[in-house]
Design a protein that fits this description.
Blueprint lengths: L2 E6 L6 H11 L7 E7 L1 H12 L7 E5 L6 E8 H11 L3 H16 L7 H17 L7
Parallel strand pairs: 1-2, 2-4
Antiparallel strand pairs: 3-4
Helix pairs in contact: 1-4, 3-4, 4-5
């Protein structure tokens, strides 16, 4: 079973997003724990600047933790950016939040998209998890 702790650093009610993310990961096999921290655009920009030396807003940032076998790390998601991207991409807010949580989770598990091969593997894994949760990309 995957255990997720949520922390909300925004003024939004995040119960629906927490429920959505739990339902996605209820269908994923594993015995791990991680945190999801909901933040604003300004907060994630500061995190991005501090830890990645990139002074811009991003959608999701993951910080793996390799010290504990069961706890795999933290995922920071900008809900503001998720709303913006859902509108930009023409899909639902749920799809975007789901995508960002899965994307962050895969990074915590060592997946990345630095090469074309790695990106293909990561995309296939993401889409499989999202399809299982009925959050497929609309083409």
């Amino acid at each position: 079973m995957i255990k997720i702790e949520f922390y909300n650093q925004t003024t939004e009610d995040t119960l629906a997003q927490e429920t959505l993310i739990r339902s996605i990961f209820d269908k994923v096999e594993g015995e791990t724990e991680f945190n999801v921290i909901f933040v604003t655009n300004s907060q994630i920009q500061e995190i991005n600047k501090t830890y990645r030396q990139v002074d811009s807003v991003t959608d999701v940032i993951s910080f793996p933790d390799d010290e504990d076998a069961s706890y795999i790390g933290d995922i920071f998601i900008s809900l503001e950016r998720a709303k913006e991207q859902a509108a930009e991409y023409g899909h639902s807010y749920d799809r975007e939040v789901g995508f960002l949580s899965v994307h962050g989770y895969l990074h915590l598990n060592g997946y990345d998209h630095h090469s074309i091969e790695d990106e293909k593997i990561m995309i296939e894994k993401q889409e499989s998890i999202l399809k299982n949760a009925n959050l497929e990309r609309i083409k």
